[in-house]
Amino acid sequence: MTDIIETLQNRGFIYQTTHDQELRDHLRTPRTYYVGFDPTADSLHVGSLVPIMAMAHLQKAGHKPIAIVGGGTARVGDPSGKTEMRKMLTAEQIEQNQAGLHTQLSRYLNLDGQAGRLINNDQWLLGLGYVDFLREVGCHFSINRMLTAESVKLRLETGLSFIEFNYMLLQAYDFYILMRDYQCSIQMGGQDQWGNIVAGIDLCRRMGIEEQTFGITFPLIMNSNGTKFGKSVEGNVWLSAERTSPLDYYQFWRNVDDTDVKRFLLLFTFLPESEIAQLTADGANINRAKEILGFEATRLNHGLEAAQQAFATAVTRFGQADPQGEVQTSSAIREVAIQKVADMPEVAVQHNELGEIGFLQLLVRAEFAASNSEARRLIQGGGVKMGERVITDPQARLEASDLAVDPILRAGKKRFKKVVVQ
RNA sequence: GGGGAAAUUCCAGAGUGGCCAAAUGGGGCAGACUGUAAAUCUGCUGUCUACGACUUCGGUGGUUCGAAUCCGCCUUUCCCCA
To answer: How would you classify residue A325: left for phi > 0, otherwise alpha for psi between -120 and 50, otherwise beta?
Structure first.
């Protein structure tokens, strides 16, 4: 078995680990590991992709993933990495969200119950009696130590409620149960989870688990210009196609900073390290590398067909970085037949609206502007085009002649929709 | 339990009776330059049937010709003392 830690490290997944050498030895035989996901929304976003991809790598290497969807802990709310208390969710909301998360995780991981599984920590957290919990678990925690944890210290500035303060105990308890009942010996999470993970390892030992347990944290992914990762024109980039269309998803990856391409290819695709090194060796193929990043990331999340369509659509709009296919890659992007699959987002108008409907209204309908005022500003700023014609007059209406040649409505350079008459 | 302070437009944060749709910064959007990149420069950034009108400054009720600004009550948050 190859050293999977080595692979993860080379690809940029590892921020910290406990017991580095022992962990490597530990992973020479098949093990079970887990990551917790908060069901605070019905979809994950690209920020969660780091743990998901890490889990997928480990599963490929023969280990067994457990995804904990924190039904129990979501009712409490993890204070780590947040500056404010999170709003509480109702049981129904959490349940709905869990279903969504399961579908999305299943695209990257085999969670059939054998090779891997999804577990809700409701089953052991909700039945806990307060007094019993305090006696069994609470007595192993030192307030003095908890107060020194980075995640807690940060919150002492702004305030921390008791319920949030307890989050660490619950997560540690999760780890203990998973180790005890599922032989899950490794917990992974974002770097802000370090304190919680270490607390879990400690608890396992104090509760009498003989075997060593381990922790791995992932780095917080930032864009290289220091801004938050995972934002686009439309806001958060989600994994669900309803919230972020495959085309927008592709565009998000296609538009990352030059300096982020290599790092993101390593983290968010399964292309071999050597190939990624070649692709990004000099700046010459940077745009092809971005196309491949977009294509591969979209393929993983939305499937091959959606990736082909997204790529083809983008190409018909913006052109192609490597039309001759000169750049070597193992990606299936090589086989995309552009003409056939292009898939244009559309905005519909009725027959009788031609010559009637103003561009202000059309822009709002296409969701390029949230209000008439915003649409007006967009036009006044010179950002609206119908075909090749720049719209300058906010009063202008959509005429039948506009649709004859090039029926594409554009807002800025990157947003476009085809106007179709119904 | 007692005392003090604060709540402003996406965020941070000015404004303390009319000149306030509300400074400044960040973010966002658009334009120029480019490579669907970055950096830089410029404009915009409450809503509308738009050179005018309307609604915003935690909630509510007052004072006033006129309030984000003054007063009462309520809610929330923070700080100090116990």
So the answer is: left
